[in-house]
Backbone:
């Protein structure tokens, strides 16, 4: 008799447990990313308003339309001299040798057996050269180049890739107008999930 | 086989010998040190409770670093959470040291009210935790038989992340309805930047400051990073310092000359965000050697587009497929553990796994990827079915396939 009662207790407990688990799976299994904002204030008031000065000081981004490019200018000739001192150790004497990222190799250049993705054959926007060089280069001293130096290096790299004339001046007006050889090759992602492999 | 067995036995004996001489002694400061004692742990009082847990001196899991990344030992994990110190790493100019007291996140651009949030500010907002994977989109290696799961695809890891929904911060600054992209910028030496669709910011993006219950590790973005569940790892900008709302992408280096890849007709695919469904058998896998009889095949499956709905295994070189058991919980955009009990008859064969996600995407073969993208396809977003060869002697070897 006692053992039957004990048995019944286990059956009831077990049933409750199963219901609890299945319930939690039904309700807890799905991800509900949208935070329920019911009862939230329009603003929590945490944080502070950014001043125009601090935004200007931090905002170094440059868009393909040239927004964000600073005053100043540079030439390929000046860039060549800066490149020799500050860049050639990693990218090679002419930008083709490496050991790291080969930067020079005009579109359709058949001389390069490594099929490197260069500024000439792979970069879709000229503004990216200025932005990336200024924020991240040289690798061992990032952020150390002046805007004029970056303009000159950009001019040198564009000229070495036969995209601009070696006498051309690069500045905030001319750089966004440079049409890169690889520009039209880029297409947006068309993978969408589902059965088709893309 | 015999030689391998002998080696492993010798290693085991060496381990036992070490066991006799190592114990953990806690100093007054709460640090734990190893000291020599006798072999029988029941004959000597153990180490008293301490301030910080330790790892057994017998456990030696490590990542595999290169110049630019470090890979998680997938084959050695249990369950689906990656221990924080074994989370894969990829950075573009090292791990920065950031003082959390000085940390600030600026959100500006197409917003009503540009704002600066300190770490303390971020932690005052409503909190959310979620478990999901982060995977580098360059996470595929092949080329030789002696590759481990860590070598092949160790650039994926999973944590419980805690922080504030980016949508909460978007509300706070009043993001313009005309804003369609935002730039995320890190405060590392590469000042790494990526453009992300604003829709992802409203959907499930987060600014996270905790990982597996404690502050994020420096290698994962201390003190705060962007988390974009299911998106390629690089977009989950670490050490995030600035978010700029815009009506166009910024075309940064990491979304033009990197993290893009050749597809057919000379085209280059860009803004390839979601990580497609993938799986890998982590046991048995190189370099283990199995014995005839019962073998539980185990592995991980994941998808950046939702939940894993099915993992199928083949033990006969792909001729027939069986559904594997999925370990609960099966979470959205998360590593999912699968298992299948198999009786190996001692004959040479290949074992494979194939994941399906809730969009009905089926993990492709390398051949299917080449068919879809062309022979010159690039090296990102490769998620092929991977096979392990079981030799007659029980040795397990990766089956490398030709990319061309």
Residues:
């Amino acid at each position: 008799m006692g053992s039957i009662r004990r048995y019944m207790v286990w059956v009831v407990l077990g049933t409750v447990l199963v219901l609890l688990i299945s319930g939690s799976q039904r309700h807890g299994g799905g991800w509900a990313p949208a935070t329920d904002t019911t009862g939230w204030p329009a603003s929590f008031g945490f944080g502070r308003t950014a001043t125009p000065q601090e935004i200007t000081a931090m905002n170094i981004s440059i868009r393909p339309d040239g927004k964000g490019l600073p005053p100043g200018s540079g030439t390929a000739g000046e860039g060549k001299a800066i490149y020799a001192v500050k860049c050639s150790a990693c990218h090679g004497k002419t930008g083709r040798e490496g050991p790291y990222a080969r930067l020079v190799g005009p579109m359709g250049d058949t001389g390069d057996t490594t099929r490197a993705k260069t500024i000439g054959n792979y970069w879709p926007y000229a503004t990216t050269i200025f932005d990336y060089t200024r924020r991240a280069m040289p690798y061992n001293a990032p952020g150390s180049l002046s805007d004029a130096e970056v303009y000159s290096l950009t001019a040198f790299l564009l000229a070495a890739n036969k995209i601009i004339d070696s006498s051309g001046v690069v500045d905030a007006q001319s750089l966004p107008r440079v049409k890169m050889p690889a520009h039209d090759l880029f297409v947006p992602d068309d993978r969408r999930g589902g059965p088709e492999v893309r | 086989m015999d030689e391998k067995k002998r080696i492993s036995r010798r290693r085991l004996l060496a381990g036992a010998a070490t066991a006799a001489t190592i114990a953990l002694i806690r100093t007054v400061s709460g640090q734990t040190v190893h000291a020599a004692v006798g072999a029988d742990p029941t004959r000597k009082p153990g180490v008293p409770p301490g301030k910080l847990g330790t790892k057994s001196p017998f456990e030696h899991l490590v990542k595999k670093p290169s110049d630019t990344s470090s890979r998680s030992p997938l084959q050695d994990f249990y369950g689906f959470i990656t221990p924080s110190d074994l989370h894969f790493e990829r950075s573009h100019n090292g791990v920065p040291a950031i003082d959390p007291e000085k940390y600030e996140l600026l959100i500006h651009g197409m917003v009503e009210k540009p704002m600066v949030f300190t770490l303390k500010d971020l932690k005052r907002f409503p909190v959310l935790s979620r478990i999901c994977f982060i995977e580098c989109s360059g996470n595929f290696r092949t080329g030789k038989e002696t590759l481990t799961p860590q070598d092949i695809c160790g650039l994926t890891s999973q944590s419980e992340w805690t922080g504030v929904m980016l949508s909460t911060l978007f509300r706070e600054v009043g993001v313009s309805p005309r804003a369609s992209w935002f730039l995320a910028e890190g405060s590392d030496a590469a000042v790494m930047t990526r453009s992300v669709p604003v829709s992802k910011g409203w959907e499930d993006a987060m600014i996270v400051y905790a990982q597996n219950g404690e502050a994020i590790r420096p290698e994962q973005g201390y003190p705060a990073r962007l988390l974009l569940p299911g998106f390629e790892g690089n977009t989950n900008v670490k050490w995030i310092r600035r978010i700029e709302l815009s009506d166009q992408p910024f075309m940064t280096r990491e979304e033009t000359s990197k993290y893009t890849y050749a597809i057919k007709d000379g085209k280059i695919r860009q803004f390839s965000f979601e990580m497609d469904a993938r799986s890998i058998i982590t046991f048995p896998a190189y370099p283990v050697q199995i014995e005839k009889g019962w073998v539980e095949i185990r592995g991980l499956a994941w998808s950046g587009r939702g939940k894993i709905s099915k993992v199928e295994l083949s033990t006969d070189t792909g001729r027939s497929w069986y559904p594997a058991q999925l370990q609960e919980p099966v979470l959205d955009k998360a590593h999912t553990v699968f298992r299948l009990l198999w009786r190996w008859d001692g004959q040479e064969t290949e074992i494979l796994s194939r994941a399906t996600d809730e969009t009905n995407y089926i993990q492709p073969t390398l051949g299917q990827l080449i068919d879809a993208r062309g022979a010159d396809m690039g090296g990102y977003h490769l998620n092929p079915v991977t096979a392990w060869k079981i030799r007659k002697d029980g040795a397990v070897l990766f089956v490398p396939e030709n990319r061309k």
